[in-house]
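User: Hello, can you help with two protein structures?

Assistant: Certainly.
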Amino acid sequence: MNILYITRAYGQHGGGMERLSFELARELKQQANVDITVLAHVGARATSPFFVFTITPRALAAARKSDAILLGDPMLSLVGWLITLFIHKPVAVIVHGLDITFNNWLYKLYLRLFFRNLDAYFPISQSVNTNLEHVPVRGRRAVITPGISDRFYDPSITRGDLLELLLTTYNLQLTNQKILLTVGRLVHRKGHAWFIKNVLPHLPENYVYLIAGDGPERERLKGKERVILLGKVSDQQLKILYNTVDAFIQPNIPVSGDVEGFGLVMLEAALCNRPVFASHIDGIPDAIHDGHSGRLLPPSNAQAWIQALTHELPAPQLRKEARAYTHTHHSWPGAAGKLLNQLKIIARQ
């Protein structure tokens, strides 16, 4: 089967969408009797909207030799619409969440014109699928949760490596602290500011909160007591963090029009046997299964978070099952196989 994969976000070391696209393409190449061509934007994310127009001629040419076309997100719907109109090949699209809930009238008009008449839609979680139900689309739908690449787990890394990293890179000297970690873009829905205001002050004084990532909320979070903004970190630094912190937290809060489609960083932490505490909101429950790969807590419920992080964090059973369970339930071969089966169905129609 010949697949043409067009994506605006692609790279092994980028954000969640970039890594999802890269790892999906790599796994599809491993599938039997599959030949995949990738047309990817690899520049700055700010320029990715223009990729829709610059890639169109190449996409139309490559589509002629393909059995099915896979779009990396709904922003590429114009390209898919043109392929169905002129090349008459089946087109599917991966739906991440914010790409259908973004509240902008011009973007909504764009989706209305080009997104509705594709052949298949692959939301990455049940939550995204629910949001998709409010957008009238013609094609078939199938929830396909992403797999996860096991590239960070390293049991040889010690707590001493973490303390040395914090001292030499950030001039921070920590000794007996309980270290909480969040990784990701600093945006309102992630709940950093809510957690710092409503939960952290009520945790024992030896708890500190590390935040790796950057974004528009950075200035709002600076200078807070027991909060350390690491900024963007390298893969090697992230590997040390994932394997040595006391817990990974994802305290998302509800924000209208802005959703968490899934949560790859939580799975990366679970694969490193970290206790994961996350909000039961949006697509997070498709990534973290309560009691198996982590704990799901009610969003915006400070008392529940305080209780869990105070009394459940030391419990070793939180991390005992996480790695094996995540391996079993979030493998890339399984996810890619499901997606490939769906592409074969639309190719036969």
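That covers the first. Now for the second protein you mentioned:
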Amino acid sequence: MGAHPAPITVTASIAVRSAGGKHDFYSEGDYWWPDPDHPDGPYIRRDGLSNPDNFVDHRLAMIRFSRIVGALVSAWKLTGDEKYVQHALRHVSAWFIDADTRMNPSLLYAQAIKGRVTGRGIGIIDTIHLIEVAKALGILEEAGLLGKSVCQGTKKWFADYLAWLTTHPYGIEEMNAKNNHGTCWVMQVAAFASYTGNVKLIRQCADRYKTVLLPQQMAKDGSFPLEIERTKPYGYSLFNLDAMAAICSLLPKSGTDLWYDGMADGRSIGKGIQYMLPFVQDKGRWPYARDVMYWDNWPVAQPFLFLGALAYGNQELLHTWVSLEHRPTEEEVIRNLPIRYPLLWL
């Protein structure tokens, strides 16, 4: 990471195709490409195939921010040296508070498609990389290391973003998505509501997990049919299970233990882990199609293994997690791995 890297926020890169301003996060739909028959016309969809010419600067900056804050707060937890906290808070202030560099607390221009839309609800998934930032801020607040102005400023930012996520048509659309997008909406709202102390939203997230996510997304054997029918069924199944495990870890104050609270027919996070574990230990046993891209890059040290090991005291999950890749370099894998720093979850 280098010595004391300077903050880089959305204001560092201006996207010429963005309909927003310099403080607005912008990204483009991954699977949309120029139409070879109409090069200057609207983009066309090629599911599962990412367009390498898309604008990704803001997404990469947010991932960098998440990794820096996660690493620095983990370093403080290990050493007790508050210099790591001070460096982390420089980045936090740049993203959420400082007028010149802060990001607006909305995602109006994410996952845009040239010639079609200036932004989409499914772009909300891009802010999964703020989950460990919110987790780190909660840890620092509890330790009395956040400072009044940073605490108030960051809580206002996340409260404003939660209001947008839960009322704007994009947010409602994403909440109602029936695949990993709907899961990631709940995961994000759970993380941000936990930091801001929004008990009502915390309880709503727990209820939505039990009454919507499990019954709509998980089959009785623990698989995810809506992910399996995609062009990257293996990677998406891992991603969705990671997000569900994160939800269970984020909501201990919801009034129920989601690690043990499942459906009458046996569907639960435990069933999902039980289903995927053999295919993580031996990918060759995967009974469905291979992913059209990045098949060779999965699995890595999946968060559901670590979080499940913590929740159940399961040594097999822990040993499997330890044995896998903890420092992936493929951008697509990093993008779909918002939980990277175990010390933030202990």
